[in-house]
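Re: [ENG-882] Designed sequences occasionally contain unexpected residues at chain ends

Forwarding the minimal case from QA. C-alpha cells:
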C-alpha cells in the first residue's frame, strides 16, 4: 500500500479538531496526494466557504470527486495502491443519506463489508458527535445515534483508528503514526 498506509484508516474528532488536515497529511506523506472523495453539498454560503477552504488547502496532487451518497462505488472504482482515497466526511454522508430517506444503517453495513480487498488504502474522516450536549430534538438525536453507530462499525472494520483533539492525534487502534 502507498507509503505504508494501512488498508483502512478512520480518523475521528470534533468539529475543527484537525481531523481533515491529519488525513490529508497522512496521504501526502504516503503518496504525495490522492483522491479526495467529498460528501459535502454546498447548501448555504457557510458550507460553500468551508468547501472552498478545504480545496484551497490541497495542492495540485489531489483529485476531487464530489459524491454525497454512493461513496462505496467511488471508493471501489478509484482506490489504487499508489493513489489513496480520502473520504471526507462520514457524518455528512450520513446526513445526506437520512435526508434522502435511505437506510443509513444498511448503507454503513454495506460500506464496511465492501472495504475488503480494495486495490488501495482509504482514509475516512468522521465527526465524533456524541461528546457534547444531548440534542434537544428527535431528528438530531437520531442523527447522533446513527453517527455513533457508524463510527463504531467503521472503527471495528478499520486497521487503524485515530482520534484528534486540538490538532493532536491519538492512536486508538493499530500501529503508531
Amino acid at each position: 500500500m502507498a507509503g505504508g498506509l494501512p488498508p483502512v484508516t478512520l480518523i475521528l474528532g470534533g468539529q475543527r479538531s484537525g481531523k481533515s488536515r491529519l488525513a490529508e497529511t497522512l496521504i501526502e506523506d504516503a503518496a504525495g496526494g490522492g483522491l479526495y472523495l467529498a460528501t459535502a453539498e454546498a447548501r448555504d454560503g457557510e458550507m460553500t466557504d468551508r468547501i472552498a477552504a478545504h480545496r484551497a488547502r490541497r495542492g495540485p496532487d489531489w483529485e476531487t470527486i464530489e459524491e454525497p451518497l454512493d461513496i462505496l462505488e467511488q471508493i471501489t472504482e478509484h482506490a489504487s495502491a499508489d493513489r489513496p482515497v480520502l473520504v471526507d466526511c462520514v457524518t455528512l454522508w450520513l446526513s445526506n443519506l437520512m435526508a434522502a430517506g435511505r437506510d443509513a444503517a444498511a448503507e454503513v453495513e454495506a460500506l464496511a463489508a465492501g472495504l475488503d480487498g480494495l486495490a488501495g488504502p482509504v482514509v475516512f474522516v468522521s465527526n465524533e458527535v456524541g461528546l457534547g450536549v444531548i440534542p434537544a430534538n428527535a431528528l438530531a438525536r437520531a442523527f447522533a445515534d446513527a453517527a455513533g453507530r457508524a463510527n463504531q462499525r467503521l472503527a471495528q472494520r478499520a486497521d487503524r483508528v485515530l482520534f484528534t483533539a486540538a490538532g493532536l492525534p491519538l492512536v486508538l487502534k493499530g500501529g503508531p503514526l
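QA comment: On inspection the terminal residues look reasonable. The first strand starts at residue 8 and ends at 13. Proposing we downgrade this to a documentation issue.
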